[in-house]
Amino acid sequence: MELGSLTMNEHASNSVPVLEMRGITKRYSGVTALNNVSFCAYRNEIHALLGANGAGKSTLVKVMCGVIAPDAGEIVLDGKTVRFPNPADAISNGISYVPQELSLVPTMSVCQNILLGQEPTFQNTCSLINEKKLEEIAADTLEMVNLDVDLHQMAGTLPVSAQQMISIATALYRNSKIIILDEPTSSLSSQEIKVLFEIMKKLRDEGYSIIFITHHLEEVFEVADRITILRDSEFQGSFFTQEIDRSRIVSLMTGKSEQLLRRKGLPIDSKVEALRLENVDTERISKGISLNVHKGEVVGLFGQVGAGRTEVLRAIFGADKIKSGQIFISGEKSTINSPIEAIEKGIGFITEDRKNQGLILTMDLLDNTNLGIYERSTKFGLIQPQKIKEITEYFKDVLHIKTASLKTWTKYLSGGNQQKVVLAKWLNHASKILLMDEPTKGIDVGAKQEFYQLINELSKRNVAILLATSEISEAIALSDRIFVFKQGKIVAEVDPEKITEEELMAMTL
């Protein structure tokens, strides 16, 4: 049942929303970021906010949190119209935001992070912190999220899953009644996600309103009670989760039907080996790794977060040392001591962390696309701007990179377009072997479809691809073969045509 036209009294469990956004509009220099968007959240619910990159989710959340002011529309909290001139005001009114890129202070302890800015002090002084009281409050707050860690441990030394819970605990300490979780599962293993979902459900049952932003639709059906969808800065509807299916969501998000592309056969040169590893031990978790990939072949590396896939790719690229074992490129034994040597041997690496390791965000498309190979566009030692522009324009057109200008900083592009710029860089290097680590992480379903097409096109051009992914459907749909990783080792090599998603997942547990 679509909820866009329902009255408040028709909602299943509550009569008055805890938060309403009515007719929110926001424009930037003539560009409409939100156009008359409405949204409402109730107590005792997990509400998924969905949309492609650039659909307006981030802008709507910024309005909710007082980061920006809307040009039109109103915010209603517990039935009263409110204005949030700044984020602190939104927090004081019970709205907390837990960002995808966690904002804990890494060099401060767990308890200091939870009570940061609201530390208890001794009654006779306004400046001396009551350390004992601080620890007691922090311990009680962590119990609410079932997290057992050393209160004095530096937050930055903890795993991402623990930091996520600390961020949620901080929101609870602030007496937040609305908690916004932005892509909270992006760096978590399946077991950690399970724990997070249990906490989310627990908080929902205790009366909190959880606004859940994710690109993983299977998570939506697992944990969300209701869904609101945005597309092109406009409201597409709100729905009870049990009354809408995946294809309908994708259609509303993208304006197109979902078509997950499957591999169809192998290219002619698929029997020519491009890369082989024999009994490779990395300096970190991965041990005894033996695998190979042929020209034009897509080989999937599937496993949980921390299973060792990333470490293998980093070792191949020379970013991590190989303790033992051998690497062969085109049948010849090779030694790779640095990324520079890997690049010289025709290897490119699309990292999981594109913002910190794949791009220079304060550089434009021209610089990022031609990074490291300016010498190809020089004459008498001078860079030729026109040549650089022609190369960048070519990849922009081929990869359908959406940007107003080649001089736009990559930090202002959507996640999908950022990932295409990373790919453009390696195609510009003429990489014959591409290592891809979670290449569709943090990009929407529409951009994923485009990236899947690009992967298939690259294989047709005889590029050998090692694809590390934790998405089951992605591994099965895109791979010619799959190596399954568990606790740093390869536990199986499987044919994606002959295995189910359930069987594949079971191998990693």
CATH superfamily of the largest domain: P-loop containing nucleotide triphosphate hydrolases
Mean pLDDT: 85
Straight-line distance between termini: 37 Å
Numbering strands along the chain, what is their spatial order in the largest sheet? 6-7-8-3-9-10
Query: Which CATH class of the largest domain is shown?
Result: Alpha Beta
Radius of gyration based on Cα positions: 25 Å
Which shape, going by the Cα principal axes?
Answer: globular
Number of domains: 4
Extended strand count? 22
Q: How much helical structure, as a percent, in the residues? A: 25-40%
Describe this structure in words.
This protein has helices at 57-64, 87-92, 110-114, 131-143, 160-173, 190-205, 217-223, 246-254, 309-316, 339-344, 354-358, 365-369, 385-398, 415-428, 445-460, 472-478, 501-508; strands at 19-28, 31-41, 45-51, 72-77, 80-82, 95-98, 178-182, 209-213, 226-231, 234-240, 273-282, 289-294, 298-302, 322-329, 332-334, 347-350, 378-379, 382-383, 433-437, 464-469, 481-486, 489-494. The strands form 5 sheets. Strands 6-7-8-3-9-10 form a 6-stranded mixed sheet, sandwiched between helices. Strands 16-19-20-13-21-22 form a 6-stranded mixed sheet, with helices on both faces. It is 32% helix and 25% strand. By secondary structure, it is of the alpha/beta class. The chain contains 17 helices and 22 strands. The protein folds into 4 domains: 1-94 and 177-258, P-loop containing nucleotide triphosphate hydrolases (Rossmann fold, 3-Layer(aba) Sandwich); 103-175, no CATH class; 268-346 and 431-508, 3-Layer(aba) Sandwich (Rossmann fold), CATH 3.40.50.300; 367-430, no CATH class. The two termini are 37 Å apart. Helix 4 packs across helix 5 (160-173) and helix 13 crosses helix 14 (415-428). A hairpin with a 2-residue loop joins strand 17 (378-379) and strand 18.
